[in-house]
Amino acid sequence: MLEKLAEIKSKAIDELSTLSDLRELEAWRVRYLGKKSELTQILRRLASLPLEERKAVSASANEIKAFFETSHRKNKESLKERTYRDLETTVKGEKDVTLPGRPIPLGRLHPTTQMLCKICDIFVALGFQVVEGPEVEWDYYNFEALNIPPDHPARDMFATFWIDAESGQRPMLLRTHTSPMQIRVMERTRPPVRVVVPGKVYRYEATDATHESMFYQIEGLAVDEHTTFSDLKGTLYEFAKRLFGEERRVRFRCDYFPFVEPGVEMAIDCMVCGGSGCRLCSGTGWIEILGAGMVHPDVLRRVDYDPEVYTGFAFGLGLERIPMLMYGIDDIRLFYSNDLRFLRQF
Ligand code: 2U9
Going by CA atoms, what residue is nearest to atom 23 of ligand 1? Predict the structure, then answer.
């Protein structure tokens, strides 16, 4: 009987190692622990055995029964875990080709980028090249080369983020306009120059509905022999018509920027009221779009362009202002708050 028990135990252990799922484990349990199993039969027959044999067989049979029960419990847990893992892989890995496809949300360009591309396209069609420059600049390129020396009151126009410099080093800053790049372009090329420079600029200001500490500008520069104020007017008028509609009228008025002389601001007639006055144009009939002017002779001289030979015009505009006017957006901060309810509209 003891030999028989040893044989049952060894067979059960062998089979246990081959089980691959819970169904097979249940069959194993019935086979070795069930009512009709050999082990249960032996346990039932214990009473009929002589005392000495009964003691030995009972001890061995109960030990094997306990062993089987523990093995069953442990295997059940591990097989359950394996089943869940397999199920997960099946669900993830299986492809039901009859299911309708999941819609892939379409991305799009940010409204600022859309406007930037539109404006660049217009100027490219008018013969300008697009160039980009560094956002961290030397004081020289951002101010001094543009007729704004230290302590010049015009520095107040450009609240500046300064970058801590080691003592004795030249001051650096986050560019307050993209103009430094036009200086860099002129330093490395001879006229004719026709470039537009889009990019981020920074102002150290409190933010509100019309001010952000980071915004986009697009500036332009054209320098050649015989470039005149008429070229400035013609180019910017054409730009206004291509962007805002063929029927637009433009108005130029004097303005001041240290790097141009004369300086002007350009306005278009209001696209909502056509010039009669409304909320958008604050009742004036006109909407200011950009600043411009003839490049100051001192700026040309500094990059070694002879102002007696070469003249040029330049312009600059704040990019976000354009979609704000076109779509009636009343807060510039919406552009950079990553609110999809806003962004999805464009
Ligand atoms: C060089 C020479 C001249 C660029 C210019 C403006 C006028 C202008 C403002 C519009 C709104 C900046 O974003 S804003 O605050 N800009 O009005 N910008 S002329 O003149 C230059 C630039 C570079 C070498």
Answer: 179
- pLDDT tens-digit map of 132-186: 999 999 999 999 999 999 889 888 888 999 998 777 788 899 999 999 999 999 9
The string of pLDDT tens digits covering residues 64-88 is 999 999 999 999 998 888 877 776 6
CA–centroid distance, 72 to ligand 1, in Å, is 82
CATH fold for the domain made of 111-343? BirA Bifunctional Protein; domain 2 (3.30.930)
Give this prediction's pTM.
Answer: 0.72
Ligand 1 pocket: which residues have CB below 6 Å?
A: 177, 179, 182-183, 217, 219, 221, 257, 259-260, 290-293, 295, 299, 314-318
Q: Are 232 and 115 in contact (CB under 8 A)?
A: no
Q: Name the residue ranges covered by the structural domains of the chain.
A: 2-88, 111-343
DSSP state of 170: P
Among residues 54, 38, 48, 50, the alpha carbon closest in space to that of 5 is found at 38
259: its two tokens: 């790097």
